[in-house]
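Narrative summary of target 7.
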Amino acid sequence: MKLIIAIIQPYKLEAVKEELYKAEVNLLTVSEVLGHGRQKGVAEVYRGAKETGNLLRKVRLEIAVNDNFVEPTISAISRGAKTGETGDGKIFILDLKECVRIRTEERGPGAIG
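Modeled conformation, tokenized:
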């Protein structure tokens, strides 16, 4: 089991979700976050408002998957988020020691979905 964390541009969220659904990855958590990478100080436009300064608006996706869904999930995120420009984002893959479905108390890969 793995936990995939992706940081992407906010305007690419819908495209990433579409690609994830095509890859049959339907369980995800989405958060709005602030941060910067190499483009720190570069202004960007988000929903008509110019953002400047050190922290830019980003979207963080958290997706728990079983091992056979790791590569399809990474590929789907990359297809949906990629523009070829600095600031497209990052994908982090972490080992997921345990997962527990609260409703049934089921544990392990079956609890993910």
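The chain has a mean pLDDT of 90.
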